[in-house]
Design a protein that fits this description.
The chain is built from three helices and five strands, in the order H-E-E-H-E-E-E-H. It is 35% helix and 26% strand. The chain has helices at residues 9-15, 42-61, 106-125, and strands spanning 21-28, 33-36, 75-80, 83-91, 94-101. By secondary structure, it is an alpha+beta fold. The longest helix is centred in the middle third of the chain and has 20 residues, at 42-61. Mean pLDDT is 86; it is low at 132-136. It has a single domain (20-124), classed as Beta-Lactamase (2-Layer Sandwich), CATH 3.30.450.
Length: 136
């Protein structure tokens, strides 16, 4: 992916209009960067995508601790001295990660991320338009 193919980046930028948010990335289950917000460079976004892939994999492996090994993973929130990382399922094989400061309203971020996931889901599952040139 290069910045010219970051076609969903605008949706991530829109999500960052919430106060105290920093960065957003969309990644595949295998850790490939699918899109990134404008505030984060592509190289850093790719590095973070690889890490987030591992994080969601670890979280999913602990499902049995929640009561049933088959239960679906939905979200992981990691807390640090300087803020939070929200990692949510964004569709089949896709995950959305958002970084925020320690002053963020966590409930608002979680709600907005679920709204964004609904919008992204439509984009990720929409078939290409007939006659659309994929090289454009």
């Amino acid at each position: 992916m290069d910045d010219g193919t970051n076609r969903l980046g605008w949706m991530l930028d829109d999500a960052l209009r919430m106060p105290e948010t920093r960065y957003a990335i969309l990644l595949s289950a295998d850790g490939l960067l699918m899109a990134h917000s404008e505030r984060i460079g592509r190289d850093e976004a790719e590095r973070q995508a690889a890490g987030m892939s591992g994080l969601q994999s670890l979280a999913r492996s602990t499902a049995e601790f929640c009561g049933d090994a088959g239960t679906m993973w939905r979200q992981t929130v990691s807390e640090f001295d300087d803020g939070y990382v929200f990692l949510v399922a964004a569709g089949p094989g896709a995950y959305l990660a958002v970084s925020a400061t320690q002053h963020v309203d966590m409930e608002t971020v979680s709600f907005r991320l679920q709204e964004l996931v609904q919008r992204l889901g439509k984009e990720l599952t929409s078939p290409p338009r007939p006659g659309a040139d994929s090289r454009a």
